[in-house]
Design a protein that fits this description.
The structure holds 2 protein chains of 2 kinds. Chain A is α/β, with parallel strands linked by helices. Chain A has 21 helices and 23 strands. In chain A, the strands form 2 sheets. Chain A has a 21-stranded mixed β-sheet, with helices on one face. A two-stranded parallel ribbon of chain A has the order 5-7. In chain A, helix 9 (223-229) runs parallel beside helix 10, helix 16 (417-426) packs parallel to helix 17 (441-450) and helix 17 runs parallel beside helix 18 (466-475). Mean pLDDT of chain A is 94; it is low at 578-583. In chain B, the strands form 2 sheets. A 5-stranded mixed β-sheet of chain B has the order 4-3-7-5-6. In chain B, strands 1-2 form a two-stranded antiparallel ribbon. Chain B is of the alpha+beta class. Chain B has 7 helices and 7 strands, in the order H-E-E-H-H-H-E-E-H-H-E-E-H-E. Chain B is globular and about 40 Å long. Classes of the chains: A alpha/beta, B alpha+beta. The interface between A and B is large, with 96 and 80 residues.
Chain lengths: 583, 274
């Protein structure tokens, strides 16, 4: 069907489409729209780097300026994916360097990035502007030096929780003196000291600097110097926030903060000396985001500060905030959208902190815009969950971690099925859910019935039988990511819902009852899936087929099986080199 | 789970498998399923795989008395295993639980060590030294622990004969015992489907008392290989770079063990000098 709009008009219209979903929808309308769209797509997001081949991507989308890739499965964050599993970005960088010489932005999450990759990036893209590495590893400060030295137009260097080999702090000094385009620098995860004078000079010659997140080695006494040089900052992360209590240091810090009229976000605060916390009071009412999750101070100190942040939208804090602190927040922070409470002592059974389910209930009552919750606690009840869900039907992300696996409702000793069931029933826009505590198959029945918008589900130590998994796979229409550990789910539900797996990004199951035979069958029957069995035991070939695998990671792919697998990974059921005879 | 709970659970599971063995479940294919129908007997213990060309879909049918199911599987889950024990860490023995990023764990513990050592410098209460139970306070040698500058939580562990190493989070442990037990689970036990928490004290790890054919060693900051267990735990944390599970026969020439003040006398020692 010939399109009556001239191409220029369509191109102009498409330029307003930024979301990947919209662009994907537009590209399947007709051939000419497909062609039109592919030529003007500027940003690509690949949620699983093994789902597609970079050459396919480059062939289809020739004008891309920004690439975002994710590598390892989410559970790699918790040490469940052994080293060497994959997520190597090098092959992508090689292809992209060839295919997109004008690339401007690279964003990577959970990938292995080597110094060689960073050097290649720094030399291949003349107009390179943005590098964001989240939870990446494999590179050293030498690689950073290459980026910093060679990328003349660099705007953003954002290292989020990366594991970096720290050879020295000299990388920062490699920013050329003529370099003035820096907008965002996040070095919070680095542990080695950088030259403060180099840092100060860099800040001084970066008029567009909006984000500056320091690492721990920058002492509190020097913060005011930096803030005075960059009063235009919007997002600031302190270094170690401790020092001897000295009035002159305190007042210059407080003055420096009060000079930052645009500050919206604060983070850092390692090793907090509580007496210095009030230095930020002048900006509290400006803050929309506050991360105190490394501030190991008592509730009153924390509450005094957070209680003044009337415009706060995002709060990340340790359980030292306690129920009383959360109660204050529920009264003072009426604009709160996201709450994250991390545990200070995750590995002891009895907490020294008075943080219970009550804290979360009061925030859910008091904060009408609360949408996203990540909450670690040691006790929960069905009635609390029901209250939360009724108070906040607008929740989109609910992640609850009760520290003890399989902990029941602490009041009734019943499973928490009804509580979580209430969450999925009342919160109709829920897209992400993580559950914990004692849960039977019943909760999965609720989820399958009600959670129609659920995109990502994380399950641990839950369920009784395959029926649980079957409810989820057959009922959750929007489910794309499912990760399961230590649940009695096996072959039946998996094989019965094989076609569902092709409509999902990925499924992770570890310490469950999925057998080698089922994985092989699934791999053979579903050419669009890679069924990766991750198993570090010896003599796998002589294990009977009905033995459960240690871990299996299943994902849809159009690029076939991958060949960068370590010894302990087997791609099951594939014809070429991938068939492993387990008979 | 306690031993008697195993027996109860095993009995009940066996009972159910018999109970369900006599029920047949008819499976029908849905229009969307590409696979033809088949009939299958449901068996709890060993899942019978369908014949090559067939698979099945589950009917939303009755799966047996749910109360009985709960009785069978819930019994051991709600008693014993849940009750939080006050005798120290439990969740630390389960890999990756609670789901806190390793980056965060390393940061928090680095903080604790940092603030302990800089105690004189900062004024005001430092909550970490008071509230952190799993830091050993009594040991005077803490004063000599140097500030950690690297990611002190995870260290690499290699075992002789295995090409792929693992990483273990030292901060999840507060004594050699739990560390050795965790390593035994990782390397020496065949099955890793252990989805339960061990709450009772286990016997002394075989890796530490010399009864196994393997022995646990570590490389310290000076590059020397030492036997694990020689020095107080906190000092070990401050000096360890990586671990190696070595064959006992190869463990000669290592620094000899001396009697630890904190530990019970061992009955068996590894012969170090041949």
């Amino acid at each position: 069907m010939a399109c009556s709009f001239p191409e220029e008009v369509l191109e102009h219209v498409f330029s307003f489409l930024t979301s990947q979903k919209d662009r994907n929808a537009v590209s399947v309308v007709c051939k000419s729209w497909y062609e039109m769209e592919r030529w003007c797509r500027k940003r690509i997001f690949v949620g699983n780097c093994y789902s597609v081949n970079p050459r396919i991507m480059i062939r289809r989308f020739p004008e891309v300026k920004s690439v975002e890739l994710k590598g390892k499965p989410h559970f790699a964050d918790f040490n469940l994916v052994p080293e060497g599993w994959g997520g190597f970005v090098y092959p992508w960088i090689v292809e992209i360097a060839r295919g997109y010489p004008w690339l401007e932005e690279i964003r990577l999450k959970r990938m292995v990035v080597t110094d060689e990759c960073l050097e290649m990036i720094s030399k291949s893209f003349k107009n390179f502007k943005v590098l964001v590495l989240s939870s990446c590893e494999g590179f050293s400060t030498d690689g950073l030096a290459a980026i910093v030295a060679n990328c003349r137009n660099l705007r953003v260097l954002d290292l989020r929780e990366c594991e970096v080999e720290e050879l020295s702090g000299h990388w920062l000094s490699h920013f050329p003196d003529s370099f003035t385009s820096l907008e965002s620098l996040n070095m919070a995860c680095l542990l080695s000291e950088v030259s403060f004078s180099a840092l100060e000079r860099l800040v001084a010659r970066s008029p567009n600097l909006k984000t500056l997140r320091l690492n721990r080695t920058v002492p509190l006494e020097k913060l005011s110097t930096l803030l005075q040089r960059a009063p235009q900052l919007v997002d600031f992360g302190t270094g170690a926030y401790s020092a001897e209590i000295r009035p002159d240091v305190y007042s210059s810090l407080a003055d420096a903060f009060s000079g930052c009229k645009n500050l919206k976000s604060l983070s850092g605060f390692w090793d907090v000396t509580p007496a210095y916390l009030p230095a930020i009071c002048s900006v509290c009412s400006l803050l929309t985001s506050l991360n105190l999750s490394y501030a190991t101070t008592q509730s009153p100190d924390l509450t005094k500060i957070v209680g003044q942040c009337y415009n706060l939208q995002r709060l990340v804090v340790l359980d030292y905030i306690e129920d009383t602190g959360l109660n204050t927040i529920s009264i003072s922070c009426k604009d709160l959208r996201e709450l994250v409470v991390f545990p200070s002592d995750p590995f002891v059974a009895d907490a020294d902190v008075l943080l219970t389910e009550q804290g979360l209930v009061s925030v859910s009552q008091g904060c009408p815009k609360l949408q996203s919750v990540l909450y670690f606690c040691r006790q929960m009840s069905n009635s609390a969950l029901i209250s939360i869900s009724k108070n906040r039907p607008n929740l989109t992300c609910f992640r609850l971690c009760i520290i003890e696996p399989r902990a029941p409702d602490y009041v009734t000793l019943e499973p928490l099925d009804v509580g979580f069931g209430s969450v999925v029933e009342n919160c109709k826009q829920l897209t992400r859910l993580s559950m914990s505590g004692l849960l039977t198959d019943r909760v999965f029945e609720y989820i399958g019935t009600h959670a129609k918008n659920l995109d990502m589900l994380s399950i641990a130590f839950a369920g009784d039988s395959d029926l649980g998994l079957h409810h989820v796979l057959s009922g959750c229409d929007s489910l794309r990511k499912l990760e399961i550990r230590d649940c009695p789910f096996g072959d039946k539900a998996l094989l019965a819902n094989a076609s569902k797996l092709e409509r999902m990004r990925s499924l992770w199951m570890s310490s469950c009852f999925v057998s080698f035979g089922a994985c092989k069958l699934l791999g053979q029957k579903m050419p669009g899936l890679n069924v990766e069995v991750i198993d570090e035991r010896e003599n796998i070939s002589s294990i009977p087929e009905c033995t459960p695998v240690e871990k299996v990671y299943i994902y849809r792919t159009v690029s076939g099986q991958r060949f960068d697998i370590p010894d302990y990974v087997r791609i099951m059921g594939k014809d070429k080199d991938g068939v492993y005879d387990l008979s | 789970m306690k031993k008697k709970d195993y027996k109860v659970t095993a009995f009940l599971l066996f009972f159910f498998s018999l109970f369900n063995f006599f029920k047949t479940n008819i499976f029908t294919s849905t229009p969307n399923s590409p696979f033809p129908t088949c009939t299958l007997l449901y068996n709890h213990f060993c899942i019978l795989l369908p014949i090559m060309d067939t698979t099945f879909t589950l009917a939303a049918a009755d799966y047996g008395d749910e109360d009985e199911l709960e009785l069978g599987l819930g019994l051991s889950l709600t008693s014993g295993a849940y009750a939080p024990s006050s005798n120290g860490p439990i969740s630390s023995q389960v890999v990756g639980w609670p789901p806190v990023k390793t980056y965060r764990m390393n940061s928090l513990v680095n903080q604790a060590k940092f603030s302990k050592n800089e105690g004189e410098k900062g004024a005001g209460e430092d909550i970490t030294s008071k509230k952190k139970k799993n830091i050993n306070h009594e040991n005077k040698n803490d004063e000599t622990v140097t500030k950690e500058t690297g990611h002190s939580g995870f260290v690499k562990v290699n075992m002789d004969g295995l090409p792929i190493g693992r990483k273990v989070d030292l901060n999840a442990h507060d004594c050699y015992e739990t560390l050795a037990q965790a390593l035994e689970i990782m390397f020496l036990k065949a099955s890793t489907n252990a989805s339960f928490i061990r709450t009772e004290k286990q016997q002394r790890s075989r890796l530490l008392d010399g009864s196994s054919e393997f022995v646990l060693t570590y490389e310290d900051k000076e590059g020397d290989w030492m036997l694990v267990g020689d020095v107080p735990w906190r000092m070990f944390l401050g000096t360890v770079k990586r671990l190696r599970i070595m064959k006992t026969s190869d463990a000669n020439g290592l620094a000899p063990r001396f009697q630890e003040k904190n530990q019970k006398p061992k009955n068996k020692r590894i012969e170090l000098k041949k």
